[in-house]
Amino acid sequence: MTPAGERQLIVVDSAAELAHTAAGRLLARMAANPDRIAICLTGGSSPKQLYQLLATEAYRDKIPWQRLHWFIGDERFVPVDDALNNMATARAIFLDRNAPPANIHPIPTATENPDESARAYERALQAFYGADRLDPSKPLFDLVLMGAGPDGHTASLFPGYPAIEETARWVVGVPQATVAPFVPRVTLTLPALASCREMLFEIAGSEKRPILTRLLDGENLPAVRARSNGKTVWLVDEAALPEDFRGER
Ligand code: 6PG
Fold first, then answer.
1. Which pTM does this prediction carry?
2. What is the whole-number distance in angstroms between the Cα of residue 188 and the centre of ligand 1?
3. Ligand 1 centre and the CA of 30: distance in Å?
4. Residue of higher predicted confidence among 2 and 52
5. Which of 60, 72, 57, 66 has its CA nearest to residue 27?
6. How far is the CA of 37 from the centre of ligand 1 (A)?
């Protein structure tokens, strides 16, 4: 694996501006790739404003829907139409009305257990990629969207869990979550998430300030260890930014 690339901190005024900035970065990645594009979405509440924006005319009409494929970085092990399902949220907000169904790639959860689900998604990703080994010169995703939880987890990579140390598998099952919702998870691993041109974290709101303080201090937490082999961007709003980092922009 190539060493992790550059990491950039971008500070914006508000959550609304953060969603616009994220949408602009997505469009830029799409414009930079004239072929098949792959975006890896995320769950939780952080990306919802961005998803809403992508459904508006201003953005919708600029998105090359036919050659764009949508994946998800982690999933709650609940039925695909459950309100807790991450891809169900993205589908309801913007995907189902715009993306060709064959271009939406949810993590299958109608399986016996999370491990089986992980194996099935790994096979799907490898079939899409055309190989079962990641080639550093050929990123799996154009852009990977991420969030950070209050304990420093990202995707469903929780601090101290074995999934964070995985170096070979692309997707693994996680029997238990350390934060709500307390359902088993399925998550892409660090090497699979790293295989992208850009990894974009969205971190907003004053409730994120304690964990952002720890992340910016470089604590050894999953959200710090998750890095793109290309570019990593932390998109942060003023409310989440610790005092010490004010004036960073
Ligand atoms: C999930 C996520 C998770 C999320 C963080 C941040 O399934 O919950 O994918 O990793 O990104 O927990 O969540 P919030 O955006 O809700 O703060």
1. 0.96
2. 14
3. 24
4. 52
5. 60
6. 24
